[in-house]
Amino acid sequence: xxxxxxxxxxAATWEDLxxxxxxxxxxxxxxYGIVIPxxxxxxxxxxxxxxGRLVSDDGTRIALNSxxxxxxxxxxxxxxxxxxxxxxxxxxxxxxGDAFSMxxxxxxxxxxxxxxxxxxxxxxxxxxxxxxGANRQSFTLPLGLAQFQNFYYTDWPVVMAGAVLxxxxxxxxxxxxxxxxxxxxxxxxxx
Length: 191
Description:
Elements: H1 14-24, H2 40-49, H3 67-81, H4 88-91, H5 96-100, H6 102-121, H7 125-130, H8 141-146, H9 156-188
Helix pairs in contact: 2-3, 6-9
C-alpha cells in the first residue's frame, strides 16, 4: 500500500507524516493514512517529538504550556482541522493498531495465545511456590502428577494417564487457534 502511494520510507518529520497521511488516505474505499484517537495520552508522542516534556523537571507539575507543547498542539490540531486522521471508530475498530495490523496479526496473536496458555498450564515451579504448605488441599495438574512419584517408587501407569489428561486442554487450545496459524502461514509464506 505504501509503495503504491509512492512512499519508500517511514515519515521522519511532521510534514512527512502529513504528506504520507494525505497520500495514503482514501476514505471512500476505507483506507486511512493515519488513525489517532483524540485522547490526551496520544498527544504526548507529539510533545516528545517536538523536544518537549509532559511534566516539569522536578515532576511536580504538568509542562504542556512550553513552546514545544504549543508547537505539538498546533500540529495535532491542524491534522484534525484538515480532516486527515481518522478515529478508530471511523475504521470500525477500538484502537488504532486494529485499523492497520489486526488482520495480519491474527496468526501472531494465535501463536502467542497457544504458547502463553501452554506455559501457564504446565507451570510447575510457580505452582509449587504459590501453593505451599503442609496440608495442600488443591493442586495444579503438574503438581498432582508429581505426587505419584517418590524416591523409591513411581506409579508409571497413573503418571502416564495423568500426562495424557494434562495434555488434552493444550491440544484443544491448539485446535481452536490452528485456523489462524494456518491462515498466517498461507498468506505470508513463499508463493
